[in-house]
Amino acid sequence: MGKTREPSFTVAHHGKNVHVVDVTGVPMRGWQQWFLIRSDAHHDNAKCRRDLEKKHLDEALSRNAIIIDLGDCLDLMQGKADRRQSKGQLRSGQLAAAYFDRVIEEAAEFYAPYAQNWAFLGQGNHESAWLAHHESCPTTHLVRAIKMLNKGSQMGAGGYGGYLKFRVRFSNNACLTWTMRYYHGSGGGAPMSMGVLDSRRMFSFVEGCDVIAVGHNHQSNVVGIAREYLETKNGIYEIRQRHCDFVRCGTYKDDWGNGHGGWAVEKMGSTGPTPLRAKWLRLHLQFEVHENHKGSAKQHGQPRLAWDILDAQ
């Protein structure tokens, strides 16, 4: 496991799906903050690449990264009342009369060593389906079980969609914010667009965020969108642009395997295998330089939060 240290941030949860992360008293020089954004682990499924999960989580600890999960962390398809259940998808550790309890216990044991860095665990369609049919929320149960094992965890149970607000106050009292809209996702596998069209759909009703992060269809891509707006300050008008990234995270479930057979091969053969990926996001400082509005040659730098998005593979 990666080197464990106390996280340098605090997490507060407002309502069911707003999560505020605060970092305070840090110097500007060389500052950065990593995030691990992951989705669709299907951790209890036999096809989950737990070795890849562990690799990324260990790296998150070594980077002191904030961990975010967008749902379908659990698969929950192997209960005896589920028409989709298959003995070939069942891990040996789940062979118990209390199937659901064992899945929660096993997942909590796996995730607890990383929970001090975990901001929230979102809900996906697999968890919402269990809630609808069994009147019990797997996301809440898993978060509670993890926090029983790791008392230093600030993890909260998130929604199917919601917001993460990041605030950093530097040692010189400058304060900057960054906002992410998260949503587990909906619809089919999007074989032609790989879900890219969802970026335009969400931009039609989501406002004021820097990144939109989505999972569900197991695709992995980043689409950058620029939006124009009018800014005024002290009677000076400027037409400016705001950039937003639409991010799909990938999956840890290797449904395709060698292409021999199974549901993914039979039903989704036109798409082929989906990327075994998560996403790294690195926040850092950039300084915008503007000419003095009085027309002099003097310039000044305005700090802002910038970000890079990389594949975790």
What does this molecule look like?
The chain is of the alpha/beta class and about 325 residues long. Helices cover about 20% and strands about 35% of the residues. Strand 12 and strand 13 (about 300-310) form a beta hairpin. The strands form two sheets. It has a seven-stranded mixed sheet with strand order 1-2-7-8-9-11-10, with no helix packed on it. The protein has one domain (about 10-190, about 250-310). It is globular.
Quick gist of this model?
The protein is α/β, with parallel strands linked by helices and 313 residues long.
Name the features.
about 325 residues, alpha/beta, 13 strands, about 35% strand, globular
**Tally of individual domains:** 1
User: Total helix count?
Assistant: 6
- Mean pLDDT across residues: 89
Measured distance between first and last alpha carbons: 17 Å
Question: Which class best fits the helix and strand makeup?
Answer: alpha/beta
Q: How many beta strands in the DSSP annotation?
A: 13
In spatial order, strands of the major sheet run 1-2-7-8-9-11-10
Q: Cα-atom Rg, whole angstroms?
A: 21 Å
**Helix-residue proportion:** 10-25%
Biggest β-sheet description = 7 strands, mixed
Give the H and E element order. EEEHEHEHHEEEHEEEHEE
Spans where pLDDT lies below 50 across 5 or more residues: none
Shape: globular
Strand fraction equals: 35-45%
